[in-house]
Automatic annotation (TrEMBL):
Organism phylogeny: Bacteria, Bacillati, Bacillota, Bacilli, Bacillales
Protein name (record): Restriction system protein
InterPro entries: Restrct_endonuc-II-like, Restrct_endonuc_IV_Mrr, Topo_IA_Znf, tRNA_endonuc-like_dom_sf, Type_IV_Methyl-Rstrct_Enzyme
Polar residues: compositionally biased ranges: 43-52
Superkingdom assignment: Bacteria
Ranges of Basic residues composition bias in the record: 25-41
Coiled coil location: none
Residue stretches making up the DNA topoisomerase type IA zn finger domain: 213-243
Transmembrane annotation, as ranges: 6-23
Length: 244
């Protein structure tokens, strides 16, 4: 009889302990869920998007630095450039569905060139597939020649492919030099100053006849210490310098 009483008492104690432990576990689970909900935040991205289809007015585009243009705006800038240089221009890549060709430019002799424009950051180079697409797509527009215009550069394999299929290409500092010599594209001074580093002063107006290896003119700059040197006018696309 005594054994039976102790068994009943033990069962009651165990049930009480189980009742205390189980709610505490539920509370812990609820707390962990609430913590997860609080930790989740919606991603915010205020950075400039080059791939946007936004295209501002021609007046605005002519004042924008290349690193502040969308792909559509870069194509529009090239359209204005080629038209002023005597070409008839057909904008075939408007809206992003270019099939490998953005512009078809026709010279005074009627010779057609298929143009692919790539407004890329310096580290984002044109891949070999872009060259191949242009070579195949130019036939759809009855073009004999082809040209890639990029704000960055081509990868090694892309250069080999371009040379093999006689695809001309303008890149980096050469693009900047051609557009500046045109005279109508004048990037805002405010944009240029934001691109300078702490070690260098804003670009000086003292332009020389000295040429950079990329083809652009060299301008006089001052280091933080005050010493003068020649720097490429296409900075920051090209960072080469020369001693004065």
């Amino acid at each position: 009889m005594n054994d039976f009483i102790w068994i009943v008492i033990g069962a009651v104690i165990l049930s009480v302990i189980a009742g205390i432990v189980q709610p505490s576990k539920k509370k812990k689970r609820r707390n962990s869920n609430t913590r997860k909900k609080k930790a989740i935040k919606k991603p915010t991205n205020n950075s400039f998007n080059r791939s946007s289809s936004t295209c501002r007015t021609d007046e605005v585009i002519l004042t924008l630095p290349l690193d502040k243009m969308t792909g559509a705006e870069f194509e529009r800038l090239l359209t204005l450039y080629f038209r002023d240089n005597g070409y008839t221009v057909k904008e075939v890549g408007v809206g992003g569905r270019d099939g490998g060709v953005d512009l078809v430019i026709i010279d005074k002799r009627g010779e057609k060139t298929a143009v692919q424009a790539k407004c890329y950051a310096d580290h984002n180079k044109v891949q070999v597939m872009t060259v191949r697409e242009l070579v195949g797509a130019k036939r759809n527009h009855n073009c004999i020649l082809s040209l890639i215009v990029t704000t960055s550069d081509l990868t090694g394999p892309a250069r080999k492919e371009a040379d093999q299929f006689k695809v001309d290409y303008w890149h980096g500092g050469l693009v900047d030099s051609k557009l500046r010599s045109w005279g109508k594209w004048v990037p805002s001074n405010k944009k240029i100053r934001t691109a300078t580093t702490k070690k260098e002063q804003p670009i000086s107006k003292a332009v020389s006849n000295v040429r950079c290896s990329c083809g652009a003119t060299m301008v006089k700059r001052k280091s933080k210490a005050g010493s003068e040197f020649w720097g490429c006018s296409s900075y920051p696309s090209c960072r080469k310098t020369k001693a004065i």
